[in-house]
Amino acid sequence: MDLGIAGRVAVVSGGSKGQGLSTADILLAEGCKVMISARTPEPLEAARAGLEAKAPGRVAALAADMTEPDQVARVVAATRARFGPVDIAVSNVIGHTIDPTQSGTHAGFFADTPASEYAAEFKQLFLSAWWLAREVIPEMRARRWGRIMNIASGSAREPQWEIPHILPNTVRPAVAALHRSLSADLADSGITVNNMLTGPVATQRNIDYYTWLAGERGITYEELIATQYARLPLRRPGRPEDMGNAIAFLCSEQARAISGQCFSVVGGRLRHVY
Amino acid sequence: MDLALKGLTALVAEADCEAGATAAWALAREGASVRLQGGSEAALTDLAEAIAAAGLARPALHAGQSTGEAVRGAIAAGREIDIAVSVLPPLREGRLTAFDDDGDLKDGWRHVGSTVELFQAASAGMKARGSGRLIFVGPVEAKAITGRDADIERAVALGVLGMMKAVSGEVGPSGVTVNSILWDSAPTGEARTRILDGLGAGVAYFASPLSNFLTGLAIAVDEGKHGGVF
């Protein structure tokens, strides 16, 4: 299937690893020009170099914290200067950390998570997505073509109360509402907006998370993972490219009537009928 | 994006309606070997000839057969079904409060049985082979109240969607995925073209090995104009 997106300009945040990196890789394979961003320069440069080897001249990288509006604007401006206006914007910002020594929000349940962390997670996940959308929509609207996507989590539709996920359980549905509202506002503009729900994908971050959680529960990683995968109809974890392929498909010309969807790449974990 | 459908066999049920024909075209373009089931032999023949005239493999026909008979016929011809697509054709429009008898309701519900028959017959071989795709194409009214009085289609499609979700849990461990495309049939002109393009592409993507971690989805193709947050 010719996706019809060769030459399109994409920004992928969180693009140095995992699903963000895979998304950038697949968009490049479809002929896009891609700007990746991430906070930490070293892995970002490594990712850029790896992508550059596959798609010379069509990839750029800029270290930035995409949870700060001025830095979002800087990345979009740099993309415009290097490749042209942004056609495809993929927001891929992660939320809470499991490391209590790190700054930012932290894993927790309702009873032990202070209200300030909810506000911080809202900035991290919701406002970051809104800021990126706000930066790219005017030029997309002017050209009557655009794709806005957010890599979120299955928590947007079904809370995970068995693990310390109160923050994403609260904020991810709000992000889904943001993208649904945007999709309605932008209907007939040539811009689609979809919320990508991820789940048990074997990224290093998820492996680290489940290793930590297993330690918290006094069981092995393998024991924990076995219970997680037993809940999946497909009985196995996903791969980063499962998300990248879904995003590339939704970027296609053929998918220009698919908007406002929560597109679940979760191995069937979510049990709702619709 | 290579959807890797070459060499796979797809059976499209109710291919003699617009949505069914769209699905058949999309699969044929990606190189699948397509088989067409439906009640109108003339419409299926026209579709098969049009696909062949485009330089694609001519689909085999199962005109007038039930969906189960079509699957068994394909298997008898040496073609196990890798991709089974059940399409809900247009049903009588109107509001349930306006119907005098239950005839149209019963007629609509028979499509649930037809889908069950198709997926039961096709999934047996899929499970044995450890791979397969069950895809339903229905109306967006299953997810949303629209301006169209599609009460019967809504009820039937939601019955199928419930079944689909349950089946996704049953057949998932065998490598079979189960997904649905819900399309908005009301628009005309360019908007209809966009929606039909999305329907076909969605079917082809869900049929592809590239989507093998996606199951239990029901995606609307309606330009984002209907429905709630989820």
Give a brief description.
The complex is a heterodimer of chains A (274) and B (230). Chain A has 8 helices and 7 strands.
Features:
heterodimer, A: 274 residues, alpha/beta, 7-stranded parallel sheet, 46% helix, globular, B: alpha/beta, Rossmann fold, 6 helices
Summarize the structure in words.
The complex is a heterodimer of chains A (274) and B (230). With 274 residues, chain A is an alpha/beta fold. Chain A has 2 domains: 9-201 and 240-265, NAD(P)-binding Rossmann-like Domain (Rossmann fold, 3-Layer(aba) Sandwich); 202-237, no CATH class. Chain A has 8 helices and 7 strands. Chain A has a 7-stranded parallel sheet, sandwiched between helices. In chain A, helix 4 (115-143) links the parallel strand 4 and strand 5 (146-153). Chain A is globular, with a radius of gyration of 18 Å. The mean pLDDT of chain A is 94. With 230 residues, chain B is α/β, with parallel strands linked by helices. Chain B has a single domain, classed as Rossmann fold. Chain B has helices at residues 18-29, 41-53, 67-76, 103-129, 151-171, 189-207; strands at residues 9-13, 33-38, 60-63, 83-87, 132-139, 176-183, 218-221. Chain B has a 7-stranded parallel sheet, with helices on both faces. In chain B, strand 2, helix 2 and strand 3 form a beta-alpha-beta unit. In chain B, helix 1 packs across helix 6 (189-207), helix 3 (67-76) packs parallel to helix 4 and helix 4 (103-129) runs parallel beside helix 5. The longest helix of chain B is centred in the middle third of the chain and has 27 residues, at 103-129. Chain B is globular, with a radius of gyration of 17 Å. The mean pLDDT of chain B is 96. The chains are: A alpha/beta (274), B alpha/beta (230). At the A-B interface, helix 5, helix 8 and strand 7 of A face helix 5, helix 6 and strand 7 of B.
